[in-house]
Every structure is written in structure tokens, then in C-alpha cells.
Specification:
This protein is of the alpha/beta class and 449 residues long. It has 2 domains: 174 residues, 3-Layer(aba) Sandwich (Rossmann fold), CATH 3.40.50; 241 residues, Rossmann fold, CATH 3.40.50. 41% of the residues lie in helices and 16% in strands. The chain contains 18 helices and 15 strands. Strand 10, helix 12 and strand 11 form a beta-alpha-beta unit. The longest helix is centred in the middle third of the chain and has 20 residues. It is globular, with a radius of gyration of 20 Å. The protein binds pyridoxal-5'-phosphate (PLP). The site of pyridoxal-5'-phosphate (PLP) has 19 residues, from helix 12 and helix 16.
Length: 449
């Protein structure tokens, strides 16, 4: 294995905003209350001004505040590595580089945005953040970030994961967060769901409703989202900007970039600095990898949809499977969101990025292979990218093609051993594409004029 490091002073000092370079402008998010484009004032109910500005801006570069940099530099720059042992095992002429984000305190890329989000809220006088977490990674990242700024944190955790992943819960509590299984009795959205179905396992869309409701109803509390939104994609671009510098050090430039895609933020993070080059004429591909059981980009519809079950969030134009679509209980909990980042969706619609879906058994098969060769157990989410990369590397072998591949290993899987255990016991299967459920859910998209 080859490792390429950067010095502390080579961490990018600015985030890259791809909205400055889009060949076609994006359409605005719509307020569910007025049916008109959501305004700055409306968003202030749950977000601080600095983040709303980043959300709406077409300014190309944003300075990373010093206080944020101080914390990011605890684990950044993250290493770029070449998976030479995996290459050899596959017998591929392709070169496989990966950017490893599992070195962060929460074990995934999500800490990159949790820290600036907590910081901008603190600066605005906010004392508490409320959020949701599906598999627990985002809740962990935000708990850590809030602890750095001595802020309170309340996490609504999808009930099924709350019981399945007890150590994620302990992680959040260690950093001082309050963790509540969702649906809960604390919010209207939670109570409504429990009245309908007392045994509900919860879903990400519902946990978002609970967290947003809590933030909107309290002046000292704001809401934080771990993916999807423009400012989240912005904060994650440190990944791709660092990777570019690291590849330059070994005179490389990728032919293709892969990342797993749930809400789209780690894909945005590694890919957008390269997509900027593509917009400027460079020959490069960026491919988002999603589970075949929750195939938002590859099988969804590009339409306005709600971000949550209770329809509290702005209506965004994105690839969606319908806001009340509940994907099968696949193990990569972090890739189960019904929608996708509006920017990633826009780029996909305009052919500037590609997408692929991979079945679950390949994900665990190649995740295990990667762990054995490279000594890092990938999070099941990250293993989606690994599976797509192995498929491509094997294709390169067939074709005798010497490609340079870059992918984002978005996190480690140390909290996900139950899923690997199920795989090893032969209990996992490939789910069929849930066509009927998606079709049904897509019938309830909002009408936007
Ligand atoms: C959350 C998560 C993802 C998927 O989220 P995106 O918003 O698509 O980045 C991927 N990998 C890991 C390790 C995660 O925690």
C-alpha cells in the first residue's frame, strides 16, 4: 500500500461551491407553506444566516473559518492511499487510489460538515442543535462537533437502528448528546405516527420531521442536516480538493471518480472539484454508486418532492423515490434516503455525473475482499463504492485498459460488524428492485407550478 500525505498547511483554506460553475442554473426550493420559492426569512426558523447564505450562493469559494480549521486539522488532511494489494489480487492494469475519511473522530466524512454547522450556529447565539440519524454516523458526527463548542445536541434516531446499533447510541451519549428513538412522543409528527402504528420502526424521513419540528418551535434550537443540502456538499469539498493535491504529488489525475451515494454529500465532496474541471473541458467521469434496493438516481424521477414524511421541509427538485418510500431493510442504513442532493440530481440530469447501482451481496463480498487486502474494514455504505471500483477494475483487466481510478472510502465499518456477521452467516440476500413500492410512492409527489 502506498500512502500520500499532505502537511497541515496544505489543508484547503476554502470550500468550493460548484453552483458558481453550473452550465444551467438550478431551480429554487419551494416553501410548503406558500407554494412560492422558500425565502431567507423562512429558512431562519431552523438555520443560521451564514449557512442559508452558503445554501443559496453562487460565490465560487468560501473561506473556512479559523475556529473550524483548528478542529478539522485534528484529523485532516486525511490520507490518500493506493490499493496496490487489491490491484494485484484482481490482476488489473488499473491504478486504484482511495481517499480515506474513516480517520475522523466519528469514523466518517460527516464530521467535515458537522463542525462548521455547529460553529455557524454557535456564532449566531444558538445553544442547541436537533437532528436525526439513520444508521448513527451523522448523529455521532454532530454530537462530537457540538461537544467541541459546548453546545447541546438532541438526536432523533430511527428506532430500528436505535435497537440494532447500541454502540452508536453510546458513542453519541459519550459526547454529551441526548438520543431519542424515533418515532417519539415528543413531537406532533412522532405522536401521529405512533397513533397510526404503535410498532413503527421509524424512517429517516420521519426522524427529520421530528427534528425539524423541534427546531422550528424553539428559539434557542436550530436544525442540522448531514447530507443533501447545498451547504453540506460545499463543506465536503475539502475531500476532493485535498485528493487533487495528493494526486498531483505523484503526477496523477483520475480518469474516473467513484463514491457511494445516499444523500450525495460524500460523492459531492470528492467529485465536485473534478466536475469543475469537466465543466471546463477536461475528460473525466464521476460516478455516484447507490444500492439497487434504494435506486434514487438510476430508477427515481427528477421532480419536486418533500424532504420528509410530515412535509415540513422545503420542496426540492431532485431525483426521488417519493417522500414516503420505505426502502427494504438493507444494511447500509446511510444510503436509505428517498431523495438525493438537488445539486447532484441537477448534474446527473445534465449528464455531468453518472450513476450506478450495486446489489447488496457484491457490496459485502468486495467490502470483505478490500478489508483483507488493505487492512481497513469499509463501512457498508463505502463498500458500495468499493464494489463499483472492483467491477471497473475487472473490466479494465478484460479490456487491457490502464485507467486511474479514485474513490472515496467514506468511513470505517467498526460499528457495522452485525451486518458483516449476517453476510458471513449467509443471511443476506439481494433484494429485488422494489418497483411496486416506488411506483406507489411516486403517485404522491407534490404539485408545483
Ligand atoms: C452517511 C454515509 C454515507 C452516505 O451519505 P452521503 O450523504 O451520500 O455522503 C456514505 N458513507 C458513510 C460512511 C456514511 O456515514
Amino acid at each position: 500500500m502506498e500512502r500520500i500525505y499532505l502537511d497541515k498547511n496544505e489543508i484547503p483554506k476554502q470550500w468550493y461551491n460548484i453552483m458558481a460553475d453550473l452550465p444551467e442554473p438550478m431551480v429554487p426550493p419551494i416553501s410548503p407553506a406558500t407554494g412560492q420559492p422558500a425565502t431567507f426569512e423562512e429558512m431562519q426558523a431552523i438555520f443560521p444566516p451564514a449557512l442559508i447564505e452558503q445554501e443559496m450562493s453562487t460565490q465560487r469559494w468560501f473561506d473556512i473559518p479559523e475556529e473550524v480549521m483548528d478542529i478539522l486539522s485534528i484529523w485532516r488532511p486525511s490520507p490518500l492511499m493506493r490499493a496496490t494489494r487489491l490491484e494485484k489480487l484482481l490482476g488489473t492494469p488499473a491504478k486504484i487510489y482511495f481517499k480515506y475519511e474513516g480517520v475522523s473522530p466519528a469514523g466518517s466524512h460527516k464530521t467535515n460538515t458537522a463542525v462548521p454547522q455547529a460553529y455557524y450556529n454557535l456564532k449566531h447565539g444558538i445553544k442547541k442543535l436537533s437532528t436525526e440519524t439513520g444508521a448513527g454516523q451523522w448523529g455521532s458526527a454532530l454530537s462530537y462537533a457540538c461537544a467541541q463548542f459546548e453546545m447541546e445536541c438532541r438526536v432523533f434516531m430511527v428506532k430500528v437502528s436505535y435497537h440494532q446499533k447500541p454502540y452508536r447510541k453510546s458513542f453519541m451519549k459519550m459526547f454529551g448528546a441526548e438520543v431519542i428513538p424515533s418515532p417519539s412522543e415528543l413531537t406532533n409528527a412522532g405522536r401521529a405516527m405512533l397513533a397510526k402504528n404503535p410498532d413503527s420502526n421509524g424512517s429517516l424521513g420521519l426522524a427529520i420531521s421530528e427534528a425539524v419540528e423541534e427546531a422550528a418551535s424553539r428559539a434557542d434550537t436550530n436544525y442540522a442536516l448531514g447530507s443533501v443540502l447545498n451547504h453540506v456538499c460545499l463543506h465536503q469539498t475539502v475531500i476532493g480538493l485535498e485528493a487533487k493535491k495528493q494526486l498531483e504529488k505523484v503526477n496523477e489525475y483520475p480518469d474516473v471518480v467513484y463514491a457511494s451515494c445516499g444523500g450525495g454529500s460524500n460523492f459531492a465532496g470528492i467529485a465536485f472539484p473534478f466536475v469543475q474541471d469537466k465543466i471546463n473541458g477536461k475528460d473525466i467521469e464521476a460516478i455516484a454508486v447507490e444500492p439497487s434496493s434504494c435506486p434514487t438516481l438510476t430508477k427515481g424521477q427528477f421532480a419536486y418532492d418533500y424532504g420528509d414524511v410530515a412535509k415540513l421541509t422545503p420542496i426540492m427538485k431532485m431525483y426521488t423515490l417519493g417522500h414516503d418510500f420505505e426502502p427494504p431493510a438493507i444494511h447500509s442504513g446511510g444510503l436509505r434516503y428517498h431523495g438525493d442532493s438537488p445539486i447532484v440530481s441537477h448534474l446527473y440530469k445534465h449528464g455531468l455525473v453518472g450513476a450506478q447501482s450495486v446489489p447488496q451481496l457484491d457490496v459485502f463480498k468486495y467490502g470483505t475482499m478490500f478489508a483483507k487486502e488493505e487492512g481497513i474494514i469499509p463501512a457498508p455504505e463505502s463498500a458500495h463504492a468499493v464494489a463499483a471500483v472492483v467491477h471497473e477494475a475487472l473490466r479494465c483487466k478484460e479490456a487491457g485498459e490502464e485507467k486511474t481510478i479514485l474513490f472515496c472510502l467514506s468511513g470505517h465499518g467498526h460499528f457495522d460488524m452485525t451486518s458483516y456477521e449476517s453476510y458471513m452467516e449467509g443471511k443476506l440476500e439481494d433484494y429485488e428492485y422494489p418497483e411496486a413500492a416506488i411506483k406507489d410512492s411516486l403517485e404522491r409527489l407534490p404539485e408545483v407550478k
